[in-house]
UniProtKB/TrEMBL annotation:
UniProt protein name: Uroporphyrinogen-III synthase
Record keywords, A-Z: Lyase
Highest taxon in the source lineage: Archaea
MF GO annotations: uroporphyrinogen-III synthase activity
PANTHER family listed in its UniProt record: BLR5956 PROTEIN (PTHR40082:SF1)
Annotated organism of origin: Candidatus Methanoperedens nitratireducens
Top EC class of this enzyme: lyase
GO biological process, one term: uroporphyrinogen III biosynthetic process
Its EC number(s): 4.2.1.75
Record InterPro entries: 4pyrrol_syn_uPrphyn_synt_sf, 4pyrrol_synth_uPrphyn_synth, UROS/Hem4
Pfam families given in the database record: HEM4
Tetrapyrrole biosynthesis uroporphyrinogen III synthase domain segment(s): 18-248
């Protein structure tokens, strides 16, 4: 049975382990990223434009973005009523599910679950007012691409990604260096950067990269793949559809 390292946020670990186990993988877990609430100076304007009927599109790039947005509001039901008068965009199925769960009507989901796919999908947006609610580490390609298409873009960071640290992380690195991990699953660029930061702190980055390149590295999305490549890590699997389930299916299909 192949051993897969899963480094997703704590809130997703149980579900991820269960899914991986159902596909025949043994797992080692250590969340390389976690999420905490954040309210920036742009949030008030974000709410006012939506409630005032100014916004044409509202983009959510994660389920966390949905939940952290609604948590900040004193009257979320009223906000949702006005939000549903806009075109709400979900970057992928998990985000769509979180929106629908909260009574929000989803108008658009791009075929490719990425910032680039979203920009490509949105047409006829010249002069449109577009809101983005996302993390403090959102891909710059989204804002840049929408601006290039002539939209008026406003971004608010509704949560922050942090790097947790405990014994699980030390154990994961030890197992990796011992060659006991067969597949390294990365679902974000931040996850890759945090693993390399951990390796730097313990002076094992080169050794870890060498060992990873002898195994299987799977990444969701081109930005994540590019980040890993920048560290000298060879990405062998990148699913066409950017979901963790698709990553697992690709690994199983290719007999990783």
């Amino acid at each position: 049975m192949k051993v897969m390292a899963i480094m997703r946020p704590a809130a997703y670990l149980a579900e991820s382990v269960k899914l991986a186990g159902s596909m025949g993988f043994k797992t080692i877990t250590a969340p390389m990223i976690d999420v905490v609430d954040k309210t920036d100076a742009n949030f008030k304007g974000f709410v006012e434009r939506i409630m005032g009927g100014v916004s044409d599109y509202v983009i959510f790039t994660s389920a966390n973005g949905v939940e952290f947005t609604l948590l900040k509001l004193d009257e979320p039901d009223e906000f949702i009523e006005y939000l549903n008068r806009t075109k709400v965009v979900a970057i992928g199925p998990k985000t769509k599910e979180a929106l629908i769960k909260n009574g929000i009507v989803v108008s658009i989901v791009p075929e490719s679950y990425s910032s680039e796919g979203l920009v490509e999908h949105l047409g006829g947006i010249e002069g449109a007012v577009i809101e983005i609610a996302r993390s403090s580490h959102g891909a710059p390609e989204l804002v840049r691409g929408l601006l290039e298409k002539g939209a008026e873009v406003h971004e608010t960071q509704v949560y922050e990604i942090i790097r947790p640290s405990d014994e699980r992380h030390k154990r994961l690195v030890e197992l990796a260096l011992a060659g006991d991990i067969d597949i390294f699953a990365f679902t974000s660029s931040m996850m890759a950067r945090n693993l390399m930061a951990l390796a730097d702190e313990t002076g094992v980055r080169e050794e870890l990269i060498r060992m990873m390149n002898e195994k299987i590295v799977a990444a969701i999305g081109k930005p994540t793949s590019d980040t890993l490549s920048g560290f000298g890590v060879k990405v062998k699997i990148m699913p066409e559809r950017y979901t963790f389930e698709e990553l697992l299916l690709e690994c199983r299909k290719q007999d990783c």
